[in-house]
Amino acid sequence: MSYLENQINAFKSNLTSSSSKISNKRPNAAPSASTPPPTAPASQDATSSKQELKRKRPEQGNVVYSQPADTGTGRHIMTQITYAIEYLKTKGTPQTLPDLLSYLSQQHRDKRYKDSIAAILKTNEKVIYEPKRDGAEGTYSFRPIHNISSGEGLLGHLQSQPTAQGLNVRDLRDGWPGAEDAINTLETQGKLLVTRNKKDNHARMVWPNDPSLALQIDEEFQSIWHKIKLPEAGALADDLEKAGLTPANKSRGIKVKPKQLEKKTKKPRKGGKTTNTHMLGVLRDYSHLKK
Length: 291
Known about the structure:
The chain has helices at 2-34, 40-56, 77-91, 97-104, 111-123, 151-160, 169-172, 179-188, 219-227, 235-242, and strands at 95-96, 127-130, 139-142, 167-168, 192-196, 203-208. By secondary structure, the chain is mainly alpha-helical. The strands form two sheets. The protein has a three-stranded antiparallel β-sheet with strand order 1-3-2. A hairpin with a 6-residue loop joins strand 5 (192-196) and strand 6 (203-208). Helix 3 crosses helix 5.
C-alpha cells in the first residue's frame, strides 16, 4: 500500500505544479493574441499610398477626341508663306520683307528663319519679286492669272486676243478684287457681253462687244414680227400628219413582219435493237399494220 500511495501523491503533485504553470502563462498569452500580425501595417500603408496616388492625378477637362490637338497652328513656315501670299493678294501693292514679317508677327525671329521665308517667297510661282534698287528693299507682289486690274486693261486684253475666246470671271477676280463691279459697268455701256449664273446672277464669262456690229431694226418691222402668232405645241405636228408627212421629232419606224414559225414534224422512230429474244415465239409482228 505504501508504494501505491507514493505513486498517487507523486501524480497529484505533478498535476498541481502543471496547473500552476498554465495559470501563470495565460495572462502573458492574451495580449499576443490581441495584437495584429506584423504584415497588417504594411498592407494598410500600401492601400493608403495607392489612394494618395489616385488623388494626386490631375483632373482632365472635357476632352473632345474627334478634334485635333493644339499643336501650334500657324507656327510652321509654310503656313506663314500661305498667310503672306494671301496678304499680298488682298493688299494689291508691293510689300517689303519687313512689312510681311510685321504682318505675320515674325519680326522677332532669328535671321535664319527670316532668310528662309524670303527664299521661299522668291521662288513661289504666285509671287513677283523685285530685287533691291538704289539701296531700297526688295519688294514682293502677288502674281495673278491675268495681269488685269482695270476696265481699260480688260478691254485691251480682249481686243488683243487672236480669237474671240472669252475670259473666266473667276480668273479675273484672282488678282483684281473689283473685277465684278467693273464688268457690270462695261456691260451697261455695251462694251462687254456677259453670261451669268442662274443661281446668284454673278458674272461668269465675258467677251468683247463690237458696237459696229449692232444693227438697228425699225420699230414697224419689230411690231410686225411680234404680231406673228406661233402655232401651239403639237398643232404643227398634227397638221403635218394630216398632210401625210412625218414630223422631224418623230422617227419613221420600219414595220417588220412577224416571222411565221414552221411547225416541226415528228420524225418516225427508227427501229432499235431487239433485246427480248427469249420471247420471239410468243410475240407477233404487227409492223405491216402501220400507216
